[in-house]
Design goal:
Elements lengths: L4 E7 L5 H12 L5 E5 L8 H10 L5 H16 L4 E5 L6 H14 L4 E4 L4 E3 L3 H7 L7 E6 L5 E9 H4 L7 E2 L2 H5 L1 H6 L12 E2 L3 H9 L3 E3 L5 E3 L9 H6 L1
Parallel strand pairs: 1-2, 1-4, 2-3, 6-10
Antiparallel strand pairs: 4-7, 5-11, 6-7, 8-9
């Protein structure tokens, strides 16, 4: 493939949300391909893959999975300019991003750009703002928590750097808290209930880049992230129940 950048998202129990995100992406970036990491169960799963979703999504019935996940997959397959890679089992969000990193490295893609499935795009300034600083920067991100930690939605990074790390959630260590970069950039009085003790998806990679002054927060004025996640049902889902 050997291209400069590729935008991607993760499809994971996101029926309705992903249709809106992909439609808005196609509207503002009609010439660009979109990579989708298919992290949904399938009616064609072998026993190993099927059990991985049973362990992680015990509250979602097999009927629900077949109805909405297959509808999500079918809709994506009907869209132009969509590339798909299937997760080998039920992955966390960070593990799905790691999978995309390895795939992109093999395809000689320089930069990955992440948007979540619960995103709406109304222009392209967000994309320009993420891409333009890369080179001097290794990571750019449009989200920032009150504590100062960058939230990687949306974000872009150099694949050669991202593939060296894991984007999986992890516990913070004493060394993290004691590091001068952490003390300079993170306000411990403004933690949320999750990131006081853990690095959320991709945030440890941000920290590693920030230590070397290779991470940058940018504005994304024409991108809306709804923070609905894969556990909140879209109105389209409600209509089909």
């Amino acid at each position: 493939m050997n291209q400069d950048f590729l935008v991607f998202t993760v499809s994971h129990f996101s029926f309705g949300w992903v249709q809106d995100a992909v439609t808005s992406f196609q509207r503002v970036c009609p010439e660009l391909p979109l990579l989708v990491v298919d992290n949904n169960p399938s009616i064609h799963d072998d026993q190993y893959r099927r059990k991985s979703y049973m362990r992680n999504w015990a509250g979602r019935s097999s009927t629900w999975q077949a109805k909405f996940c297959e509808a999500e997959r079918s809709w994506l397959a009907s869209q132009p300019n969509i590339l798909t890679i299937q997760a080998p089992e039920c992955l966390t969000h960070g593990e799905a991003i790691d999978l995309a990193n390895r795939w992109a490295a093999q395809k000689l893609i320089r930069t990955l750009v992440l948007i979540d499935a619960d995103t709406e795009l109304n222009g392209r300034q967000w994309l320009s703002n993420l891409l333009e600083p890369l080179g001097d920067m290794w990571l750019t991100a449009g989200g920032k928590l009150a504590s100062g930690i960058l939230h990687l939605m949306p974000s872009a990074w150099l694949v050669r750097e991202g593939v060296k790390h894991s984007f999986v959630t992890r516990k913070k260590t004493f060394e993290d808290y004691a590091h001068p970069t952490y003390q300079a950039l993170v306000d411990p009085t403004k933690y949320d209930n999750y990131t006081d003790k853990k690095w959320d998806t991709g945030q440890h990679f941000w920290f590693e880049c920030a230590k070397l002054q290779r991470a940058l927060h940018v504005r994304n004025p024409d991108l809306a992230h709804y923070y609905m996640g894969s556990r909140r049902l879209h109105a389209k889902t409600m209509l089909m129940l």
